[in-house]
Amino acid sequence: MRRNWQLYAMLAVPLIWLAVFAYWPMYGAIIAFKDYNVVDGVLGSRWVGLKHFERFVESYQFWRLIKNTLTRPRCRSSVMRRRSGCSGR
Which of 47, 50, 83, 84 places its Cα 20 to 30 Å from the Cα of 71? Predict the structure, then answer.
């Protein structure tokens, strides 16, 4: 270990990067599966599983939101709006 400490130091940099940018954001994704309460925080809130996803899919606005999600990106800038015929609404 003492002989190769430089190698371990070089290995630590990508491992820290991986932990910060790949695994830490997953902590925040847990909130979608919880009945979030500010007082309890993310980890202290009650687990509800797919309840919020079921509610979204069963919503009367589900298909409208899906359509908007798929069609709006091509209308993003004013230049693209003129070219593609998007009205911007």
Answer: 50
